[in-house]
Write a structure and sequence with these properties.
Blueprint (H helix, E strand, L loop, with lengths): L16 E2 L2 E2 L32 H31 L14 H15 L5 H25 L1 E4 L3 E5 L5 E5 H20 L1
Antiparallel strand pairs: 1-2, 3-4, 4-5
Helix pairs in contact: 1-2, 1-4, 2-3, 3-4
Length: 188
Amino acid sequence: MTDSNRTSASTGFPTPVDDGTPVGHPTPAGGPASSDQLEFFPDASPCLAPSAAGAAVTGAIGDFVLAWGRLEQTTAAKLTEMRQSFGDVRAIGGRIRPNMQKLLAELRALVAMRDRLDTQALDLITDIDGSLQRAAQFRLIAIDGAQDAEEDRLICRDIKNGAVEIPCEEIARETRQLERIREQIAAL
């Protein structure tokens, strides 16, 4: 859409217009094109597929992500079960999906109401909370900081942009830890 001076509504720069449609360069300000806009540049070469050498690491990362999702699902199901036993039928989180810390905080509150005199379950939740905080830090580095997968390790950047190498065995160990936590939450 343009005004009577034939300037673009989004940038204010003069843009050639044919029948109400801007003509010419695909970028808003007419600057150089981005290399990630492949549909505008059909002759550009696509990104390379991950190497076969990194397949074990990418599979381990996928297992870790799925284990985290199963943990969230199990925790939400346990909260629903406990709420129903207390006579509360609200949906978990309402309109938004709560994160693990919020789910665990609500689980701690419900267990405290259920087992006022038995602190063993609360101690278990405290242990789970510590393990989850460590797992969340690992998740932050491994998922958000991932840059490359080699034969038996994941190359990442931490919060301070330092290089970190995570062996495939450590990813598998963290996945087993999440599964153990999920079983503990289900048994509460």
